[in-house]
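Retro notes, structure queue

What went well: the backlog is down to a handful. What didn't: a couple of records were mislabeled last round, so from now on we paste the full input next to the output in the thread. Example, using beta-N-acetylhexosaminidase from Vibrio japonicus:
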Amino acid sequence: MSFRVELAVLSEHKHYCRFGLTVHNLTDQGLSNWQLQFITDRYIQPDSFTNGSIKQIGSFCTVTPSDDLLSANKHYYCEFSIGSMPLRFYSDGIKDALILVEGKAITSPVTLTPIILASPYKERTKLPVVDAHELALIPMPNKVEQSDGYFTLSASSQITLQATLAEKAATWLQEELVRIFGFSSKAIGQSDILFRNNPTLDEGAYQLTVSSSGIRLEAASSVGFVHAGATLLQLIRSETESVLVVPYIKISDSPRFKYRGMMLDCARHFHPIERVKRLINQLAHYKFNTFHWHLTDDEGWRLEIKAFPQLTSVGAYRGSGTPLEPQYSHLNSIYGGFYTQDQVKEVIAFAEDRGITVIPEIDIPGHCRAAIKSLPELLHDPEDKSQYHSIQHYNDNILSPALPGTYEFLDKVLEEVAELFPSKWVHIGADEVPEGVWIESPSCQKLMAKHGYQSAKELQGHLLRHAEQKLRTLGKRMVGWEEAQHGNKVSKDTVIYSWLSEEAALNCAKQGFDVILQPGQSTYLDMTQDYAPEEPGVDWAAVIPLENAYRYEPLAEIPDGDPIRKRILGIQCALWSEIIITQQRMDYMIFPRLTAMAEACWTDKAHRSWEGYLSRLKGHLPLLDKQDIQYRQPWK
Ligand code: TNX
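Corresponding output:
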């Protein structure tokens, strides 16, 4: 016997919804002095609550009913309001719930029924039916000439290296042939696969030739050889266990954008190192060259820092009775994890073998709750009486630019980060610092007066300028979200990642910043993929069906010849992990949209076609099946 919690939308408007919540006691025991805990990502207006009171920290809510008795077979009912957009998906409902008695969780299970939505979308996207293309290449190479005939790889086929730069790519190819096709050459035989240096090719570019004399992969950079291998792996058909065939072809290919990235949030939910490596390997298959590792956030600090072991001993775990309350899931257990520096080195080396640079992100000054709770003696300002409400509903998650401890923390963290990550770029976050922050802090006021700052944005700039200078002394270039240039304090060396819209990127590019485009409306893989209410995901930026992801064209209205376009270094897609708990969910959100984004990153505009992509995707799905990638079936 259990409890059942039901949430129903009673009424909804553009920026306001009212809900009714019912707790059924289906057990044969009455409860006294009980409470309900649950998880929601919306902010519940405390004054709107009936029949009790609610306390909310982030996504974590505790309800204390006005009647502290709940008899067997009876129910409790309350109503409340939110001031944000209507809910359209089941995953917008309550994510986890727990009953407490005398402040302690009880073991009877709590069943959550799907949220009763007032106006779920009725539309469904339907993809055109297409034939699977024989050359199922994604991203589409920029020049392909196919001819009749197939080359056969057999157990005596060998990989031969005539370029030291190709060593890692050759090892990767060999590993992938085994992993995907179960294929390994046993005897010493013919040099059927030849890696050869071709100094005429640019960074990342490659040529792949398959003819009766064998397979030749050419490049002048180690990453170019990886891309050549990735294309070859997509061309292979397996005839039998030990025989693979490859069509005769000549491909000459190079990337459209220099920066082709994906960001993974490992803070909201922790992704074990094997899951991270699996993703990096997939990125290599689609010719991405950057993995942006979001390692810190309000809900968890995931990177071992030797100077501050508390960041992970405290800040990597959350749950009842710990300094960080449960968030997003796992109400009834301690949840978390972190990467040791040795594991980070392992990930970096793994990525490097696949032509991928790992950019770490340490998100400051917002999104710092886990750090502040771990190091209160350094990072908490007891005199700061400012009232603010962050987007994710915290009022205690922003570093203070006026505390000496903030600088000690930042300097030591950045020193270790700079040492650990070979990447030239370090991402400093800078997103979503809420209104109202710092204004009631005497020390911040003093700092503002000293420098003649007019706004909190300038205080943020003050801190970020320090970070930029620190990183420069460590040999690194600072990069950050679009808010990093607010307050006008950082130099034009800072690379700006726009995410709220493309507009910020355009403005920044006009001012002389290099930009990476990661607009939520097109590149956020945590957005739902269709309008059906059972689609998992969020929709604050948009619903992103496959076609919209595919059709993303950065700053489309800026003509090709405009010098502003030189400022666009590339594109990045992102997976935020508020509801990404398992490998299965991760695969579902990423695939196949990642393949669409890969084409936006790589393929020249003239060679892109939605219908062409779809038929190649159809031909490509068996390769995903072979790897047990649990993608969203595009033609369902
Ligand atoms: C916005 S994108 C955020 C993240 C959230 C994400 C959810 C950005 C810089 N900030 O903190 O996880 O939306 O979609």
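Agreed that this is the format going forward. Reviewer comment attached to the example: The longest strand covers residues 3-13.
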